[in-house]
Amino acid sequence: MASLTIDFFHDVVCCWCFNISSRMHDLAAEFDLDIRHRTFVLQASRTEMAARWGGPEQARDTILGHWSVCRQVSDQPELVDIDAMRAAPFDYPHGMTAALACKAAEQLSGQAAHWDMFDRLQRAHLTEARNVADPATVLHAARDLGFESAAFADVFEDPKTLRAVDADWQHARALQVRSIPTLTVRETGFRLVNGPRDDLASQLRAAFRLVS
31, 96, 143, 190 - which has most CB atoms within 10 Å? Predict the structure, then answer.
């Protein structure tokens, strides 16, 4: 069976991306998928958060309502700690800092490292209620993953890493990606419909039949 390449557009602060990431880990192993990670930052700053949600408390209340729905259909609901994030002493974070960390990991060690960083920061966000908009949080995650602190910080702060995040955004626009998570099969141009693991597996089997 030939491999399929899947472009996975995601944002660390997206709870639905958390559900899909765990399922895609399992499916990548079963189907020999080549997962290519693409950052897709929903809001890139506190200003954009305010413009989108109207204020910090409105943002927290609305987004945690989304978390509640997401947790109900998660394969790992115990890892989505709504109460902890509700009590967190910081505004609900934007996704740009975490996106830069994911692209820095990718530039240092490839796509697998991007995924490792994405998953580690999602745990920090959803399970540990840490502020993933704070560079200190992402640098701590980098140390957890075995990156040398100074080397990682250099790449994280390099302007070309921001350009890499922007390149992912431009690629998303070219494909008319408007929401996340989005999973696009390069060989067919089709998008997987997000859902339970078995539904995703059925769609992948159909994609393989088209390219075989």
Answer: 96
